[in-house]
Specification:
By secondary structure, this protein is mainly beta. The protein has a single domain (3-166), classed as Ribonuclease Inhibitor (Leucine-rich repeat, LRR (right-handed beta-alpha superhelix)). The protein has one helix spanning 3-14, and strands spanning 19-21, 49-51, 72-74, 95-97, 118-120, 141-143, 164-166. Strands 1-2-3-4-5-6-7 form a seven-stranded parallel sheet. The longest helix has 12 residues, at 3-14. It is globular.
Amino acid sequence: MNSYLQAQIKAAKEQKLTELDLSNFFDNNDSDKIHIIPETIFELEQLEKLNLSWNMISEIPSQIGYLKKLKHLNLAGNQLTTLPEAITKLTNLTHLNLKDNKLTTLPEAITKLTNLTHLNLWGNQLTILPESMTKLTNLTQLDLARNKFTKLPEVLDKLPNLVQINY
């Protein structure tokens, strides 16, 4: 872990920060990007916003479930192919950004994120959505563009508060 990353995490812990931005949008040097989420992040139980976008993360450890206060989680632009079941422990999550990853499926258990209002799945490899997504009744914005759907998923008709969809 590089010294900048260590300093950011240390500051977040000492100052009890509720937001942590470790995104790398403007850094084209792969060696500076996060490949594995540092375990010390999971000690920051006060976090409400965590931005790990535009790194090289290919796996989310099950310890993500320790961050129970998270409301915003940004994992856009990584190398994720799956999501762990532990992500469903983030029941306060309202915004989940998974744009530009390599997801081929979503776990059925994603429906436990009942407070979710914004879900960005743009630019993945999805072909279907779990039927159980109908339980995401608070979902107002959903981005499904640039996936591999052959038709609009029927589950979308059953999301009562969905006001914005990008397909």
